[in-house]
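Allow me, if you will, to draw on your knowledge of protein folds for a short while. I am sending you one protein, given as its amino acid sequence and as whole-number tokens for its backbone shapes. Kindly check, if you would, that the fold set down in the tokens agrees with what the sequence suggests. The record follows directly beneath this note:
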Amino acid sequence: MLKSLEENQVIIYALAIIGGATLGLFNPDAGSSIDILIEPALVVLLYGMFVQIPFFRLRSALRNSRFISALIVLNFVLVPVIVLLLSKLVPDQIPLLLGIYLVLLTPCIDYVIVFTHLGGGDAKLILAATPVLLILQMLLLPLYILLFLDSTALSIMSARPFLMAFLILIACPLTLAIATEYWAKYKPAGKSWLSITAWLPVPMMAVVLFTIIASQIEKIYSYLSLITLAIPVYLLYIVIMLFVGRVMAFLFKLKIKEARTLIFSGGTRNSLVVLPLALALPEDLRYPVAAVIVTQTIVELVAELFYVRVVPTFIMPDTIKSK
């Protein structure tokens, strides 16, 4: 049942988006009234995502040093360069650039696992690597933002809301997740609870998507000009990363499943984790940046279906000889 839920998550998310859009467009008052649910839903979602990350297996993940090295170089060296170059294709507008940077500079740690499995990659390998991805992106994202945005843009942003959003919406569920894993390691009740939490990510992501779209669609509609500028960047990124991932897999001499896993990691981004940071921005930036980020989620969910077909068939088919 859980496996079926995970494999059908794209359909579930699509229905959540359609349902949220319908409510927000045809009953704007009802849609806007549920925005109070966004932050609690995000906390539960992030806890459900973080608790599935095997933080206590970090050592085993690092044993595959060649794959981990390729993963780090791709996501934290090459991707920032590619994102910076792609950002030159759009106007120098702070909400647009900030939204693109926030979402494209952070590798996915949740549904990438399922899509990697569906695309013939090694889901256990990317699952084991998620602590590395999460820790590095939280450390490096502020540095990237400082480097990529000019001083004028940075002066508009306040560090305090970002810090509060990080502590409440990311650090708290992360701490609870690690505590849960520790509990599960030593107590049967904890192990039972850990099994129950495996059901949280998909329905909670659907709830988050529904509440965000329903409460924000009128505001998102107001920023169509930004969204139409961001979409080509997202599409180019998705296509480029297919080939960059393939080249990196060749250079690091990865096996076929490892290579597919690397490609999926490079192409899949962490929109739901950075969304709280967007919602912590000043009023004039909050909604346009959130609109740019949510748009990436929608584009990416469709693109993942493309990846699932193309990666194992054309980019890394079984006929390629493993190293």
